[in-house]
Amino acid sequence: MKGTGISALLAAVMFALAGLAVAAVLSYQHLDGVAAERLCGPRSDCARVLASPYAKLGGVPLAYIGSAFYAAMLAVLLVCVASPDGPIRRALLAAGLWAGLAGVAASAALVGIQAFAIRAFCPLCLMSALLVTLAAACVWRARRINAWDPQPFGAMVLAGSAVVLLLLGGVVVLDVLQHTDRQVMALFDDRPITVGQMRREMGAEIHELESRLYDLRRGWVQRRIDQMLLEAEAKRRGLTREELVRREVEEKLDPRAEDPRYVEEMRRRRLEEFLSALRPRHRIQVLLEPPRGGAVKFDLSLAHVLGPDDAPIRLVVFSDFQCPYCAELAQTLKQVQERFLLQVSVAFRHYPLADHDLARAAAEAAECAAEQGRFWMFHDRMMKENGQIEAAWERYAAEAGLDLERFRRCIASGRAAERVQQSIRQAQALGLQGVPALYLNGRRIGGLVEPDELTQLIRAELRSLERLRPTWPAGSGDGS
User: Is the pLDDT of residue 312 over 90?
Assistant: First the structure.
């Protein structure tokens, strides 16, 4: 050979080797159905192609035949590389070329079957078709040249890089195609029913389920972090975890307290205070991200908003005055709103739970406070009770500075009850199962969120919005 003949031949070797690897992966999927589901998904296009009758020839999986084909082609090409120029090499090159052309023809036929018969595409099969085409093209190129390339190393590196890029591209294509809305879940007279169709019709419900799954994961992660904080501190002090909790929590509770609910709440608050003091001593980073899709568009005409209406960050919370976790989140939201000021607003919506006997009446009282422009004062006064509210609405109203006679008329009118019911209907339409429920710019981010975590999410959202903001060339104003 002469010129770049050896470079073309070595490139053909590498493409054949990559094709053998792809065929081996497909063969493994035929051997191990669990592996196939892990790689492709049980109802993906890839799985449909592999499960179709066209995936076998005479009962033998085409992936096995493909593996044998690539192995034989690779052997022929390696012998060509090792052989001196002469009749044997030329015969082997001719055999390699005809084999490559046969592979291209077979691959074209299989792609056609995927397109018109199966109506689904296997990314690995498409990658195999591309690799055999490239290998055949390289062999054809090598046959036209009659001398060795004196410096093939650079060409080898270039060809090897091309193969690596192809493999990486194939992995990306596989990942993208198997997780897009085109994934087929069922067939009706060969017409596909896809994930995309489901998401378009059930977007809000799916987002709510994904949010609940996120809540479960985040809750488990937080509990695990809390356990590790206690274990690390106990080890530092030479105590067991139980001894540490007894010293820092149990022994610091008020011994005069008798109400079991009050004692349990104080125990929880004391433990959280202790954990909060331990967190700065360790490097903790929660990498979970809330679901990005399915943003909810809220009707906030009856919501109570703290902060500017045009704030880039809108937090919407569904809450219950008899819920201690809601009271804790209320403190977090107040801190965050004060920290970000004009960048964040908080919208409050009622969702009194049925098993909280005073929650609905408290929500109606808060609505009557809103008629006098004192919703947030009444809200803050109620949340100070940490869920231990009493049916003393007029006392709370007086402490919030309300006109009591006007407050009583509002309660009796039923106007507040209707506004609360509208908020409840909105929460139920979202599929909310409990409170608190917090949304950031329409995306559910969980329930009780730590201040640092919420701050991190807000900053990430602000950075995202900044990237989306259009930039105007200097001096391109309207001239006014």
Answer: yes
Is 307 in contact with 346 (CB distance < 8 Å)? Answer: yes
Residue with tokens 């690779």: 74
**Rg (the chain; Cα; Å):** 33
Q: Which residues have C-beta within 8 Å of that of residue 370, sequence separation ≥ 6?
A: 304, 378
Q: Which residue has the tokens 């809000």?
A: 204
Kindly state the helix (H) or strand (E) to which residue 147 belongs, with its residue range. Answer: none
Residue 90's Cβ-count burial label (10 Å; 0-12, 13-18, 19+) is middle
Contact 267, 279 (CB under 8 A): no
Q: What is the pLDDT of residues 221-257, one digit of tens each?
A: 888 999 999 999 999 999 999 999 999 988 888 777 7
Tell me the DSSP string of 422-475. Answer: HHHHHHHHTT--SS-EEEETTEEEESS--HHHHHHHHHHHHHHHHHHS----TT
The span from the CA of 426 to the CA of 418, in Å, is 13
The H or E element that residue 169 is part of is helix 153-178
Report the C-alpha dihedral over residues 379, 381, 383, 386, rounded to 10 degrees: -160
Is the whole model's pTM more than 0.90, yes or no?
no
Which of 443, 465, 463, 466 lies closest to 297, judged by CA? Answer: 443
Looking at residue 343, the DSSP 8-state letter turns out to be: G
Is there a contact between 389 and 382 (Cβ–Cβ < 8 Å)?
yes
In the block, which residue shows the tokens 């493999």? 167
Q: Which of 381, 326, 380 is nearest to 352 (CA)?
A: 326
pLDDT band at 31 (very low <50, low <70, confident <90, very high): low
Domains detected in the chain: 5-180 (1.20.1440.130), 201-281 (no CATH), 304-468 (3.40.30.10)
Mean pLDDT across 307-313: 91
Residue in this structure with the two tokens 């053998």, named with its chain if needed: 20
Higher pLDDT, 45 or 164: 45
Calculate the dihedral angle through the C-alpha atoms of 469, 473, 478, 480, rounding to the nearest 10 degrees.
100
Task: HSE, CB side, 13 Å, CA atoms: give it for residue 237.
Answer: 14
Residue 315's beta-bridge partner residues?
Answer: 346, 440
**End-to-end Cα separation, the chain, in angstroms:** 73
Residue 187: helix, strand or coil by DSSP?
A: strand
What confidence tens digit (pLDDT) does each residue in 341-376 have?
889 999 999 999 988 889 999 999 999 999 999 999
247, 255, 256, 339, 355 from 259: Cα distances, Å: 22, 11, 10, 36, 19
Check residue 163 and give its pLDDT.
53
Q: Is the pLDDT of residue 1 over 80?
A: no
Structure tokens at 240: 């067991």
Which of 72-86, 172-186, 289-303, 314-328 has the least mean pLDDT?
172-186
